[in-house]
Amino acid sequence: MCFRTICFKPITKTLMLISVSLFCVFSETVAQRGIDYTLYANIIYRFTKYINWPNEKKTGDFVLGIIGDSPLYNELKAFVGNKTVGAQKIVVKKIPSSASSYDCQMLFICEDESKSIKRIAALTEDAPVLIVSESDGLARKGSCINFIVVDEHLRLEINKTNIEQRNLSVASDLLSLGIIVK
Amino acid sequence: MIETFTKNVISSIILVSGLTSCYIQPDTAKSNLCKYLSLKDLLSIQIVFASKNEMLFDALYPYQLHPFKNI
Description:
Shape of chain A: elongated
Number of strands of chain A: 10
CATH superfamily of the largest domain in chain A: Response regulator
Shape of chain B: rod-shaped
Radius of gyration of chain B: 20 Å
Structural class of chain B: alpha+beta
Largest sheet of chain B: 2 strands, antiparallel
Radius of gyration of chain A: 22 Å
CATH class of the largest domain in chain A: Alpha Beta
Distance between the termini of chain B: 57 Å
Number of domains of chain B: 2
Structural class of chain A: alpha/beta
CATH topology of the largest domain in chain A: Rossmann fold
Strand content of chain B: 15-25%
Number of domains of chain A: 2
Low-confidence stretches of chain B: 51-57
Helix content of chain B: 55-70%
Oligomer: heterodimer
Order of helices and strands of chain A: HHEEHEEEHEEEHEHE
Mean pLDDT of chain B: 65
């Protein structure tokens, strides 16, 4: 009895504490890592090879803005850490959805901020900002390129009109890989 | 007894914080692998749903689809 009280109780308590802590840690990370954003980060970086920005956007840093809270931010930071677009260093920035202007070359709108798409699209209408999103139907609501999952594969919905309205040009190779929407 | 418990609590906190920092790191192995794939190849990667209800999924990378193929 004495042995149990002295030796096993603290161990049991500690094991319980570790179990609860690990549960909290892993449930949070699984929730954050549900979608494989490594793949998204790679694909988003490739967009810089297929889209041409006007000369006014070819100076300074190449800013890749993210609206919303997503693990994509860390994935992109890790992936584009020492990469460039031409001579421009790529910088990943979190941008609040309520911002009055979006001074960046590419803007990713996370799923939880997809309701802001129309407002953001209207604010950046005349600016050479490539809007990328990840919710069904957003390519028809103002996004330039929208990620969707079809038959267990990532697909790109590309709105060529939205891209060209922003004084950006898109390579035909990219158009051939996506689903063109109007 | 209190000392033992305190030691255990401190060591468990260190363990959990270590695991947290390791687990939250972006998956650099996958990132490095994807560097060498074209956009077409990236879009052909099959996404496997772990749980359709919760929309959790992981991707099957080409080395997993073709284990004997060098990429």
